[in-house]
Amino acid sequence: MAKLQPVPSNDSDIARHPAVAGHGRNPGMALDLDWVDGLKVNRSAVERRVATLPGRRTVKKDWQAAWLVKAIQCIDLTTLSGDDTWERVRRLCAKARQPVRRDLLDAMGLGDRKIQVGAVCVYHEMVPTAVEALAGSGIPVAAVSTGFPAGLSPLGLRIKEIEASVAAGAAEIDIVISRRHALVGDWRALHDEVRAFRAACGPAHLKTILATGDLGTLRNVARASAVCMMAGADFIKTSTGKETVNATLPVSLTMLRMIRDYRERTGQRIGFKPAGGISAAKDVLNYQFLMCEELGRPWLEPELFRIGASSLLGDIERQLEHHVTGRYSAAHRHPLA
Questions:
Q1: Catalytic residue list contains 242
Q2: What are the structural domain ranges in the chain?
Q3: Which residues lie closer than 8 Å to 310 by C-beta, 6 or more apart?
Q4: Residue of 70, 95, 207, 273 with catalytic role
Q5: What is the pTM (predicted TM-score) of this model?
Q6: Alpha carbon 126 to chain centroid distance?
Q7: The CA-based dihedral angle spanning residues 67, 116, 276, 236, taken in that order and rounded to the nearest 10 degrees
Q8: Which CATH superfamily is domain 25-325 in?
Q9: Which of 70, 95, 207, 237 is the catalytic position?
């Protein structure tokens, strides 16, 4: 089989990704209420834009396999269940280190590449176990904090939870915002809250979960995105995965346009993480296409793009086996699929 071609670049500005490699923290800025109040979203235009995506963008054979391998490298491999155990987390970390069977990588000419996921995401209780299991791999541990998923515990406790996760070794913190601030339009309260979380993170990167399915309108999604970035968020994330409606393409497009707007205003690159309900390889391709079209090639790298998922990896690995063998395999052939 021919060696896979890389995912194409259409961003001559960063074709070799130097800016991504040097991607730094978002310092944030003072709350600009004029910007926030002036934000509007044309829902019908957003929906028309994303509806055309699957028909306009398709990749097949080696190219599709290359895009899917790139998607693997952007997955935050996640377990956030009430029955999580230390052994389950260790198995998840082993899968994070070797997400695709070695024989499949060899067949695709990728046996010499270091293919691993973007991060492992767990509850605070499991952070030390994940840190130990991933030692030496370079894979960061992300902890969900601040009263995940509802975000309704006292502010002081939420801040202490962040500090405890960072002290335990978490390199990334996924916080959930207080949705009530967005729903009543108290943007200063939201800015102050996220700013406090940002300070508590210290050296850890801050990913703010908007829980977009709870925000009601795309305009609220746009406004909350802008405020969180102003407060110092390094990533903005769609969902906890626990809402009735999680990641969708219209919501994602709205958030990507805000990331683009923030970059034009500040020069700062902010990452994006869709999460919840992305379980099929064909679906993740649409998110990748949208990222590339709206923000450019650098946003296909794990420094700026993450996918919150657990079952997605199993489907991608099945697609890669089909690419290699021409046959679809049973899910049990892929550990933790």
A1: no
A2: 25-325
A3: 77, 78, 79
A4: 273
A5: 0.92
A6: 20
A7: -90
A8: Aldolase class I (3.20.20.70)
A9: 237
273: annotated active-site residue: yes
For residue 38, the Cα-to-chain-centroid distance in whole angstroms is 27
Instruction: Give every CB contact of residue 131 below 8 A, 6+ residues apart in sequence.
Output: 141, 168, 169, 170
CB-CB contact of 118 with 75 (8 Å)? yes
Integer CA distances (angstroms), 72 to 183, 234, 315, in order: 34, 21, 11
Nearest-angstrom CA–CA distance, 173 and 143: 5
Q: How far is CA 323 from CA 3, 85, 320, in A?
A: 12, 34, 5
- Of residues 70, 76, 174, 234, which has the active-site annotation? 174
> Which of helix, strand or coil describes residue 171?
coil
pLDDT category, 2, cuts 50, 70, 90?
Answer: very low
List CB contacts of 282: < 8 A, sequence separation 6 or more: none
Give the pLDDT band (50/70/90) at residue 335.
Answer: low
Report which residue type is found at 255: M
Active-site annotation holds for 3: no
Torsion of CA 219, 223, 229, 234, to 10 degrees: -40
